[in-house]
Amino acid sequence: MREECDYEHEAEQQEYFRRLWLGRPEIRIPRVFRDLSTRRILATELCHGESLESFGAHATQAETNRAGKVIFEFYWDSVLRGGRFQADPHPGNLSF
């Protein structure tokens, strides 16, 4: 729990996952601005997208299936390829 509240640690984790997923255009992890971040402040790049609720309101079945596949691959490949588990799968952390 302490690591989750330590934004320097969070910044390291976010940058690790960002590097791990570079080159996959369907997965974008915001860049951390280290010079603006502290132990209590995490400053990141702003990424635009739709909320899960908004996406779900208009997405076709094929789009929903694709999103589910990408999310599944992200969580499992992070463990299998990267050796780390991203343990915050809250819908508010996703945009489409």
Outline, from the CA principal axes?
Answer: globular
The tally of structural domains comes to 1
Number of helices: 4
User: Which value, in Å, is the CA radius of gyration?
Assistant: 14 Å
Largest sheet: none
How much beta, percentage-wise? under 5%
Class derived from helix and strand content = mainly alpha
Helix fraction, binned, reads 40-55%
Low-confidence stretches: none
Order of helices and strands: HHHH
Number of strands: 0
In whole angstroms, the N-to-C terminal distance is: 28 Å
The overall pLDDT, averaged over residues, is 90
Written overview of the protein:
This protein has 96 residues and is mostly helical. It has one domain (2-93). It is 47% helix and 0% strand. It is globular and about 40 Å long. The two termini are 28 Å apart. The model has no long low-confidence stretch (mean pLDDT 90).
Comma- or semicolon-separated keywords:
96 residues; mainly alpha
Topology readout:
Elements: H1 2-5, H2 7-20, H3 52-58, H4 61-80
Short structural summary:
The protein has 96 residues and is mainly α. The protein is 47% helix and 0% strand.
